[in-house]
Structures are given as C-alpha cells and as structure tokens.
Design goal:
Elements: H1 3-38, H2 40-53, H3 63-76, H4 80-115, H5 122-132, H6 134-152, H7 156-179, H8 184-195, H9 197-209, H10 226-250, H11 253-290, H12 293-329, H13 341-366, H14 370-394, H15 399-423, H16 431-454, H17 463-488, H18 490-500
Helix pairs in contact: 1-2, 1-7, 1-11, 2-5, 2-10, 2-11, 3-4, 3-6, 3-11, 4-5, 4-6, 5-8, 6-7, 6-9, 7-8, 10-11, 10-14, 10-15, 11-12, 11-13, 12-13, 12-16, 12-17, 12-18, 13-15, 14-15, 16-17
C-alpha cells in the first residue's frame, strides 16, 4: 500500500476498533440491566426478532460488497459520472428491497408468534416486531448506498464515527428508561427514532463531499456478479444469524438469551479483531487494481500477522476468563442456567477460525472472485446447517450443537479460502497459513498452561478481581505471544514497523 492507503487503513481500523469496543460494552451493559428487570424470555425474544428481521437481507443477495468493489475503479480514476451510475443503481435496488421488507414485516407478525416457543402474549410480540423494523427501513431507503460509497473511498471511518455516537447515546437512553422500569417497547422505540438521524447525516455528508449526478443512468453492469455474491452472503448470514433461529424454533427463546450473553462477549471480541480486515478492505481493493503481486503479498503477510496475533491473544485471554466473568455477570439471572463452559469454548474456537479466515476472504472478495470461491461458501452453509440441526434435533445436545456446526462450517471454508488463494490472485503458499495456525496454537497452549499455573481463576468472585486477573492474564499472554511471533515473523514485523514510519 502507498502511504495514503496505509494512513486511511490505520484510521479506518482505529475507528472500527473503537466502534466495536463501544458495541461490546453495550452488549455487556444492557442485558445485565434488561434481564433482571424484564426476564430472560423478553431478552431472548428481542434478540430472536432482531435476527428474524435480518432475514430480509437474504434478498440483498450480497450485492453490498459487489457494489462496493465496482466503485473502486471509477473512484480511482475520479470518474464521478461512473460513481453516480453505480450509486443510482444501488438506490434503485435497495428501495425495491425496502418495499418487500414492508410485506415481510406483516408476514412476520402473522407467523412468528406461531413458531416461537415463548409465553409472551401475541400482541406484545407483534408490537415489538413493528418497532424493531424501523431502523431497517431507514437503512434500505437511505443509508446503505452512501455507506457503500464511503467504504469504497476508504472513508468508512465516517460511518464508524456516526455509529459510535449513536451507540453511546443508545446506551444512556436505554439505561435511563430501564432505571424507570419503562415498557421495553417504549425503550426500543426511543432508540429507533434517535437512529433515524443517521441516514440524515449520510445524506448531508455525501451531498457536501461528492458531486453525484442524481440523473445519471443507473449502471446495471455493476450487478454482473450478483448471483455469485449471493452465495457468499448466505454463508455469512448463516454464520451470524441461524443459530438463534434454530434455538428459537427447537429449544426456546430463553436459551437464545443464554446464547446471546456468550455471543456478546465472543462475537464482540471477534468484531474487534475483524476490524483489521474491514479497515484494510478498500486499500486492498485499490492495491489489487494495480496488479502488483509482490506488494499485495507483503501487505497480506503483515495484516495476516496482525489479525492472527490479535485473534490468538484476545481469544486465549477470553477462554481463560470467560466462565469467571459469566459466573459474576449472571449472578442475578436465576431463571435459566447461564453456566455453559463447553458451549463457550466451542463458540470461541468457531469465531477464532472465522477471524483467521477474514483476511483471505477480504482478498478474494476485493479481487471480485465471487464465482471462483462460491463452492467454499456453499460447503460452509450446508455443513453448518446440517450438523447443527442433526445435533440439536436428533442428538438433543442443544446449544452446544449449533456451536459445533459453526466450527465445522468455519473450518471447511477457511481451508478452501487458503487453498484457493495459494493458486489464484496471490499465488501464496498454503504453508504460510499453516505456519500461522501452528505458531498461534503454540502461543495458546503455552499461555494457558503458564497462566493456569500462576493464577487460580476459581478465586475470581467480583468484577474488581476479574479486572485484576484480566490485566495480569493479558500481560502474560501478550509477552508469550510477542516472543513467539517475533521469533517466527521477524522480517514481517520489521516491514510493518517501516510502513508505520512512512518509509
């Protein structure tokens, strides 16, 4: 990457990490306030409805990333007429989905109360569905095309800053109303109304900074890889959404609450880590356009090390401290058993695999290799769903079953992506990925043994002691990781430091 790409990437990564930290904090604070006040069933119901509302994104068919990659070329050449054509086509496409979404919400109001295993009254459920759908309407009718433009132009940090402000306001507004024990529907209606300010900001910002031609002919060629991108979108959707649906239908919304308490931690850490690949995506896309394979490979080497190192350190610390945290966090949540250690560890493995894979997926999608990599996405979908359903329905192992299905699906896709890029785009030796996994596994094993020998995690009985243990654990894991990664990746680390210095 050039210095400008590096600067933009680092700014995007920084604000992405800040956003994910804020979302992570929200995910920890709000359930702890909501569950004791309103119950696990209500908390699980809200999470479940939110997941079902995202099903409409299946109609999007993954075109968001396709539109973004199609913007790289006209933006790099300063062709605003070409950019305008793609944005106008994107607006036209998303507004069609928004219209369909209206009918989907009505259908959801009819059928969801019939399939959800919950004791909550039907009118209450229907009103929640309508309230939670407000922000999605705004996204499809206004936000998504402009967000795509900012991302392609390496300015996705603008979207992150807006989301950071909204999330912080969301936390304080929710805490205020929960302290007054207001109706949960009123709380979410308040936050949804505040969220409508985001599309207004995007409209004003893009109008000021981009000379878009609203009358430009929509560029339908930007959707040439729509059906190939759809497969990738389905795979991502299954990874992020179907576990809650399976639990809702076959086990109950209360168990969805358990899943989401663990998910708030595990997925929250994962989003912080994947901020690296998200932040460098546009820069990589721009760099791939130059076809400079040596520079592309050096860049991938550096960011694989950063993302792999972060994944290893943060998830090793998470594994060591997860159950002590859950035990303290759910002390007042007695309506469901929240202590599920094996489930937590399996979920960590699944998300760690996903984070290791992210940099490879980022390269293949930004190189427009949707068609070539769709087999891996199909395998991931099928394996994840089949194993999850069999383990939940036939073997009756419940919440652990969906986590195991996710692990096997993630691992399959990871191997596929590595093998594909070893022969295409990068001509990158697959052994580089194997080396990263082996070194990272060594870091995890050594850190776990060492920390468990030095610290007794069973003694953690308060948030104060947990924070103390977390600081000590992170320091020890960080030292072990730094030593091992420096031993095996000395040259890559030197190159990255030189890049940060602008050489």
């Amino acid at each position: 990457m050039s210095n400008s790409r590096t600067k933009n990437a680092m700014l995007n990564i920084t604000f992405s990490i800040v956003l994910q930290l804020v979302i992570f904090v929200r995910g920890l604070i709000l359930p702890r306030m909501i569950i004791p006040t309103y119950g696990s069933d209500v908390n699980g119901l809200i999470s479940s409805i939110s997941q079902f509302l995202t099903y409409i994104s299946l109609l999007e068919a993954g075109v968001g990333s396709i539109f973004r990659t199609s913007l790289y070329k006209p933006l790099s050449k300063g062709n605003m007429e070409g950019v305008s054509g793609i944005i106008n086509e994107q607006k036209r496409f998303y507004r069609k989905i928004g219209t369909v979404f209206a009918f989907y919400v009505i259908a959801l109001c009819i059928f969801y109360p019939m399939i959800a295993k919950t004791n909550i009254a039907k009118p209450y459920i229907i009103s929640l569905i309508f309230i939670l759908s407000v922000s999605t309407f705004a996204e499809y009718f206004v936000s998504l095309p402009y967000s795509s433009l900012l991302s392609a132009d390496q300015k996705i940090r603008i979207s992150y800053i807006v989301s950071i402000i909204y999330t912080i306001v969301n936390i304080f507004v929710t805490l205020f109303w929960v302290s007054l024990k207001a109706d949960i529907r009123f709380i979410y209606l308040s936050t949804c109304i505040i969220g409508l300010l985001r599309p207004l900001f995007y409209t004003l910002y893009v109008k000021k900074h981009y000379k878009l031609n609203k009358k430009a002919t929509p560029d339908k060629s930007s959707l040439n890889q729509r059906w190939n991108g759809m497969v990738h979108h389905f795979a991502f959707y299954i990874h992020t959404n179907t576990d809650s649906a399976i639990l809702t239908v076959f086990i109950g919304t209360a168990m969805v609450s358990v899943y989401n308490v663990y998910g708030a931690i595990v997925f929250g850490v994962g989003k912080i880590i994947s901020s690296v690949s998200t932040g460098v995506a546009a820069g990589l896309g721009n760099l791939i356009e130059t076809n400079n394979k040596e520079q592309i490979n050096k860049t991938v080497d550096q960011f694989e090390l950063i993302q792999g190192g972060l994944t290893t350190v943060l998830y090793t610390v998470t594994a060591l401290l997860l159950i002590p945290f859950i035990r303290i966090y759910t002390a007042k949540m007695t309506d469901v058993n929240y202590i599920q250690p094996f489930f937590g560890y399996v979920l960590i493995v699944a998300e760690a695999i996903y984070c290791f894979r992210c940099i490879y997926s980022t390269v293949s999608t930004n190189a427009n290799k949707y068609k070539e990599t769709q087999l891996g996405a199909i395998l991931e979908c099928v394996i994840n769903l089949v194993i999850s359903l069999v383990l939940v329905i036939v073997f009756k192992i419940g919440i652990v079953g969906v986590a195991i299905g996710t692990v096997v699906g993630m691992l399959t896709r990871y191997v596929f992506e590595v093998m594909f890029l070893s022969k295409n785009v990068l001509q990158r030796p697959a052994m580089k990925a194997v080396k990263m996994v082996l070194v990272s596994a060594a870091v995890t094993i050594m850190s776990t043994v060492f920390c468990s020998f030095i610290l007794n995690y069973n003694l953690v009985d308060s948030f104060y002691s947990w924070i103390l243990y977390a600081v000590i654990t992170t320091f020890m894991v960080g030292i072990i990781a730094s030593i091992l990664y420096f031993l095996f990746y000395k040259e890559t680390i030197k190159l990255f430091i030189s890049r940060l210095r602008g050489r």
